[in-house]
Amino acid sequence: MESVSLMGQYFEDELGNEISEIEMHDQMAGGKTTIIFGKPESVTRLGPTIPKDREGWSVDTANTMAQFFQVVDLIRDSTWMAAPLTITQFDKGDIASSSFPSTEAALSILVLFRQLFSSNKQDDLFNRACGAYIRHCEGPIKAEWVKVEKSNFNGILNGRPWPGLIKVDCPTAELLDAFLYGARLIHSRDDKRQESTELLRGILDKTPREHLVMGVNAILS
């Protein structure tokens, strides 16, 4: 579902030397350091920032940040992240072939993703970590970058699922809940499971199983 360029992204300076996308933006800005939303390396190159509100920093805050980094590292290094994700179908919609992460690989990261996006107050890890960083980051540029990433993250959860493989009229967060709880991949309260099971059944009535698996994996990616 992604566009592919055989040439890749290539930029060069006035002398014909290859430069990165970030260096290209810097040159376009007259040599100033540019910050690009969605490009972590553009902001991490600023280096450490002096913390603020040190009195408000607590063991709980430190644990939240440590847990967030641990979860992100586990997802990044997982077999799920390295697994192929492809689907091929004919013009009429018939599926010719598909390749997805194994069930074991998917299960290993679903519980981690749930910690990031679940609205349960014991989870909601992404928003809690971003909130802590914004409160204690003295650098306004970095804080603003994290605010935008936090807004984009919640915008995806509250918006309609992408890509358009899944026939469903609900927010992405509800779709993920249906996949996790409705398929009984993760334990949940009985009332939550029943609601998710019904939603999942309705999705599968309109959507091929392969499209559902592809769509959920693409959203998480």
In short:
The protein is mainly alpha-helical. It contains ten helices and four strands; from the N terminus they run E-E-H-H-H-H-E-E-H-H-H-H-H-H. It has a two-stranded antiparallel sheet. It has a two-stranded antiparallel ribbon with strand order 3-4.
* pLDDT averaged over residues: 85
For the CA atoms, what is the radius of gyration?
21 Å
Could you give the distance between the termini? 12 Å
- Percent in helix: 40-55%
- Written as H for each helix and E for each strand, in order along the chain, the element string is EEHHHHEEHHHHHH
Beta content: 5-15%
SS class:
mainly alpha
Q: Based on DSSP secondary structure assignment, what is the total number of beta strands?
A: 4
Poorly predicted runs of 5 or more residues: 1-6
Main sheet: strands, sense, barrel: 2 strands, antiparallel
Q: How would the global form be characterised?
A: globular
Taking strands numbered 1, 2, ... along the chain, how are they ordered across the largest sheet? 1-2
Walk me through what this model shows.
The strands form 2 sheets. This protein has a two-stranded antiparallel sheet with strand order 1-2. It has helices at about 20-30, 40-45, 60-75, 80, 105-115, 125-135, 140-160, 170-180, 190-205, 210-220; strands at about 10, 20, 85-90, 95-100. Strand 1 (about 10) and strand 2 (about 20) form a beta hairpin. It folds into 2 domains: about 1-35, no CATH class; about 45-220, no CATH class. The chain is mainly α and about 220 residues long. It is globular. Mean pLDDT is about 85; it is low at about 1-5.
